[in-house]
Amino acid sequence: MSPALELIDVVKQYEGTPPVRALDDVSVRIDQGELLAVVGPSGSGKSTMLNVMGTLDRPSSGAVMIDGREVSAMPERRLSAVRAQHIGFVFQQFFLLEGLTALDNVANGLLYNGVPRRLRRQRAAEALATVGLDHRLDHIPSKLSGGERQRVAIARAIVNKPTIVLADEPTGNLDTASSTNVMELLRSLNASGSTIVVITHDRDLADALPRQVMFRDGKIEHDKARSR
Amino acid sequence: MSALKPSKLRAADVVLEGAGGLSTRKTRTALSALGIMLGIAAMVGVLGLSESSQADLTRKIEALGTNLLTVSPGQGFGGGDGVLPESAVGSIGRIGPVERTADVIALDASVLRNDVMNQNETSGLSAVAADLDLLNTLNGSVATGVWLDEATGQTSNVVLGSVSAERLGIISVTDGIQLYIGGQWFTVIGILESFPLAADLDRAVIMGKDAAVEAFGIEPNPSVVYVRTNAQFVDEVRSVLPATADPANPEEVQASRPSELLETQDAIEDSFTNLFLGLGAVSLLVGGVGIANVMVIAVIERRAEIGLRRALGATQSHIGRQFLTESLLLSALGGVGGVAIGAAATWAYARTQGWEVVVPLFAVVGGIGAALVIGALAGLYPATRAARLAPTEALRAS
Q1: What pLDDT, on the 0 to 100 scale, is given for residue A228?
Q2: A38: which strand partners?
Q3: How much is the ipTM here?
Q4: Nearest-CA distance from B32 to chain A in Å?
Q5: Inter-chain contact B4–A78, Cβ cutoff 8 Å?
Q6: What is the pTM of this model?
Q7: Enclosing domain of residue A125
Q8: Does residue A163 fall inside a structural domain?
Q9: Residue A46 lies in a domain
Q10: Nearest CA in chain B to A95
Q11: Which value, to the nearest 10 degrees, does the dihedral of the CA atoms of residues A80, A212, A23, B319 take?
């Protein structure tokens, strides 16, 4: 299978005295249909990893391939297009717009793809059905529970059928029951074909996923499939 | 690997997103639009009022006619006796384009309410003798009572100018009020409306020339001759008037055109209009600074939203456009509101003045246009800041 995302010898160095190597010669290959955890303590470089994988930041050196396309040297405009079409983000803080209904928040996942509004809403309704929230279309975020908000955010991330979903501490703001619920949702999305990377500091959560890429001090400490 | 289509934000969506940003912060939107609104309202109001009052003045000038000329003795040497030759009226009447003339003779007689008052308490009123054609020549009208005619003009009757009536406290002529003028009794038979082009007559007590000759034995030398000419030859007539009125001393005769005074008044009002427009422009500018301020705050507050939008695929220019659109919508709101308030104020004030309401189109278009320009300028810097915000930084901010 061809890789959905691949980092080759990626270095990310923040200038300063002394310079900080947040990513130190990192190579990792993520195939389509995978579900994996990028795990490590805070300061290990996993947030930088998320930014570089998500094209929000550029590596200092090395290559980032997304869907077979080298993106690290692309101009800003093209990077925006890569994000619009290939990447779905899920954030710890949900980042839902308070003035909008769940439906319109999800529809915003298609806003920068030039999809007309009616079609955006139609596909948003489908995505909300996929995450089990088809009864919450017209609710604004403050009327939803934390777990529901994260499911709305996940629906927004998958509404454009991205090559890869990057979930940054998706359960970080949730109670145990909601966390379990969200992880089950991610697993079921993966089962139906989505490629998903969960960035987390939570070893237990990572251990429950099929593959873990463990970071320490900007390097991959180990990359292993779950021991069965 | 499928082809990478560029990120695209539809034009309709730019407006929707901009409006969305404003509608979630209603109070702030209303307050910052208010600044622009007041500036535009001031400018539209000033322009509207100026145009309305000008329209009224123009209407007045047209009603009175720009073809009225007055001939009076000048202030030069030898003009000291303050009268024109007796032949002046006849000579002027023979100038081709002259349609109508009427002369007024100032009388050296004090106007008193009764015969026990002090001779000097004349309330600044003057007695004059007038041609019976005066009212027609000046397009004047009677407020109450009647104007002098062949019969009443020969006997002891007077008609009061509007100010005279007011100062003498006379509002009705039905009970035959008498005035003591130059030692003789005269009956008030009418009160005139004001003469905007001959304010002197408003302060006059007017009797017929025959009556004046009878009562005071005056010389029939006119003090002022009012001349109504064909409108096409006003300047030509004016230029020949001095020599015609007093061929011996034309340099001592002054021929003037009263409507020019109203035009001067108009020009003075114009300069006030410019002053107020300047003040309106300043408040507009202040409103613009307010919008810029609010937009800068919005960009700081909404970093997370900006980061999210970048993550969803917005380009820098999409973000810039969204904030610029918000600023433009905000100022457009102020512009439209301001035009509405300015027009309403014009309407209300013009109505109380009895003016025709004129809200000039250029004020409406200019008002909204100025608001948009201000909005664009005010939004430019915040929009650029929002666009340049690095996505990682924006997302980290929360």
Answers
A1: 45
A2: A199, A213
A3: 0.95
A4: 19
A5: yes
A6: 0.74
A7: 32-59+74-225
A8: yes
A9: yes
A10: B308
A11: 20
